[in-house]
Amino acid sequence: MSITRISSGGDFEAKVGYCRAVVAGGFVHVAGTVGQGDTVTDQCRSALEVIGAALEKAGSGWDRVVRVTYMLPDRHEFEPCFPILSATFGANPPAATMIECNLIDPKYRIEIEVTALAGDG
């Protein structure tokens, strides 16, 4: 089985020892991704941009995402993200889980991780 590793070039990838996404076994596994910005919605949009770029590099897309996990330090901040997430996934919503937990830095309000089908098959 071939494995393809996709880097976004972020500082933490080399520092921590991970890559943005791994394509293996017919799936694209995108690492938990935080976004930039002051609000949870800014960070949600930013994280989705990074994830979308990784999916594109892997030859996949939002319509092929089968699983998504949202992690937030405050579950009450999840609802403002609903319209953004609904617009992103459209008619192809994945299975989803939301977990309330601490993130690596208190400035982060949301982290998003996805699994998608690889390629066009």
Automatic annotation (TrEMBL):
Looking at the UniProt entry, the stretches that span the membrane are none
Superkingdom: Bacteria
Which SUPFAM superfamilies does the record cross-reference, listed alphabetically? YjgF-like
Protein known as:
Endoribonuclease L-PSP
Q: Per the UniProt entry, what species is this protein from, by scientific name?
A: Pseudaestuariivita atlantica
From which lineage does this chain's organism come? Bacteria, Pseudomonadati, Pseudomonadota, Alphaproteobacteria, Rhodobacterales
